[in-house]
Structures are given as structure tokens and as C-alpha cells.
Amino acid sequence: MTSCFPSGSTVVSGVSEINAGRETGSYVNVAGVLYKWTNYGKGWRLRWFLLRNGVLSYSKIRLSENVNLLSTSDEVRVIGDVSSARLSRLNSSGRRKQQKTIGVVHLKISSFRESKSDDKRFYIFTATKTLHLRTDSKRDRVAWVDALVSTRSLFSLRPLHDTLSLVPSDRFLSTEKLRSRLLEEGISEVLVKDCEQIMLSEFSEIQGQLKVLCEDRSNLLDTIRQLEVGLT
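The structure corresponding to this sequence follows.
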């Protein structure tokens, strides 16, 4: 029987196959249809979501429309029966229409949780927005959340607000212990001062390098937030 999915794609209705990606320490790439809450006027709307290389993107779709959801080169797992049915119609019709991405979420600077009152809902939180999402079944939510957890675990867990506190600008380095120990060993005062100067110079250089890295990271996060706002 010929597969109705693009090469490299697999339907996932649970969590076991996604766990396989976690064992290798690589990104878990998944895709599928989710309901996204828009507003009280429009309510829940279908969106096509793709989690790949640590970035979750989504685009609009219509029930009557067959779209180019995945290319043949995509190595992803497809979650849910609704998603697989849509891909099946795509393959049978042969129609190809590229959908515009309307939103992106970088999991490195995001968090998420499941709804306690609805076993089909979950939420993704970023610096600029909160995505309210709903699946067609409890098993699909488990699969999506597991993929998010697996991907997020690959990134550093350091809070964002710690970025600029790594290297305090008023940090003072004391050489008193070094001086005392060297004098106890009979080292001359001239050599002790040379050692102190070398130590302070090395510390100052490392501190400067760390400050530059922290500033670069802060600028990168600001850029990502601006991109999120622009694509929403």
C-alpha cells in the first residue's frame, strides 16, 4: 500500500515514538493541525503548526483547502488523525499552494503548561504573547506537549533575567590571599606585585569578554521578540 504522507513523515497518535528523539539528544520535529484561540469574535481557528529545529511556526488553513503543508524533504512526525487526513487529501488532489507563516515561537525563550480543566488544551508563553491551543484528543495533547518538553530540555534552563547579572560591573577582585601566601613562601615584594598585576589583568580581560557575550545575547533576545511581534 502506498503511503499518503510525504517522505520522512509518520503519524503519531501518542507519545512513544516522539520519545525516541529524546534519546539521541536531537531536536524533535513534529507537525499537525491545532485549534488556536483568536478572539471572542472568531473563537477557535484551525492552524497548521510545525515544530522544527527548536522553532514552532504556524500558518492559516481552511477546511476546504488543500495546501502545501509539508515538502517531500521534511523529516517530521505528523500528530493526529485530522492532520493525517488533510495530508491524505493533499496527496490525492496534487494541488500545491504555499501557505504564509503568520507566527513563530522560539522554544528557547518560551514556556508552556497543560490546562487543568480541559485535557485537550495547553498553553505556550513567550515574552510577548500567550498561545491558547487545543487538540482533537487527549492523546494528541500528550504527543504535542512531550515534543515541546523534549525540545525545550535541549536548551539552557537559565532564566532570561539572569543574562546581564552574570558579570556585575562593580565586582572587585581581591589579591590579599595570593599576596599573603606568596610572602609566606619567601617571594620578594617585586614579584608579588607582578603576580597581582597579571592576575588582575587576566580577570579584567575575561570580565570584558563575558560582558560582550551577555550584551550580544540580550540584543539577540530583543531581536527575536521584535520578530515575534512582527509576525503575529
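Residues 1-24, 64-68, 157-169 have pLDDT under 50 and may be disordered.
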